[in-house]
Design a protein that fits this description.
single chain; alpha/beta; Carbamate kinase; Archaeosine Trna-guanine Transglycosylase, Chain: A, domain 4; eight-stranded mixed β-sheet; five-stranded mixed β-sheet; 34% helix; 18% strand; globular; binds glutamic acid
Amino acid sequence: MKSIKPKFNRVAIKVGSNVITQADGSLNSRRMLRIVEDVAILYKQGIEVILISSGAVAAGRSEMTPSKKTNIIEAKQIWAAIGQVKLMSNYQFLFGKYNIAAGQVLASKESFRDRRHYLNMKNCIAAMLENKVLPIVNENDTVSVNELMFTDNDELSGMISSMMDCNSLIILSNVDGIYTGIPGVEGSELIREVKDDKEDIDQFISDVRSGFGRGGMLTKSSIARKIAAQGIDVYIANGMRDAVITDIVRDKDIPYTHFIASHKKESGVKKWLAHSGTFARGAVTVNEGAKDALLGEKASSLLMVGITKVHGSFKKGDIVSILDEDNNRIGLGKSQYDSKKTEQHLGEKMKKPFIHYHFLVLDEKLKSAISAL
Ligand code: GLU
């Protein structure tokens, strides 16, 4: 392979359920082998790969039918418990053929809420990469239910690639990319390139879902735009095509949709906060003066003196939304006081800021990163 572009130094690859399972949900070992072969080539070239693989629930479902008393949530938990083991043992066996050690990382949305958990997960994956162990990530479906779930593994793959500072994210599904209509229907064309997050392509996208995966093209496109806005190239491509991953890395002319990375780079803490939008525990209203300071040119912390109201109850260290006097959210950050103390000291000149600048993100500055969460 000719020299590898830096945008492929560290790559996250998301494999959808529909790519690696057959019509009955059982794992398609031949397809998995094709993907493993492709990843192994990159790996041997020194590219760091993080795999995010779905398929656990589908694989489990093909193994057993729960009793009538079992509700659908429990059924999915059981299927995931069975299927995740099958999925991982298949991967370990297949990567073993190439002498690559593969290890499992199970994530839940909660793991991204707490900064300590987040850093633990980040350190774990970094240590695996350093030791040439290939991380294979999936959602911990046995404990993630409903509102505590990722929307789908596309969202998880976005969060992982952002957390791990990947250069590119490749999302493999069973179509060639994003089309200007329903794929396969006359007149519907593949969108080859999306240049920046202002380009409105959602109007074109058909959200027809097929088979076993939770995610559709609309979520893929919104995740892709958000991640590209963080400076990561995103490719949506067809995982049923042999050598699709190496072809993308080699810049071969094959069909896919490429979301071109913007040049923006955010600090690690701010990226974590950008993904924490859905975890805000409470909110504070700030006065005009504080709003102007926060939105001004100079980086500012949010001081207690600028806060006029406290909403909800939160602990010190929780993520809190910042609202203006018209109730519009202007940002969020990690509070240094609990809600009780904040109530007690509203408007006072306290030494410690309510949210320190390093732990504060403004919606205006990270609009694309936060709004879709
Ligand atoms: N985590 C699920 C699984 O492995 C898949 C979620 C999705 O389809 O995005 O079965």
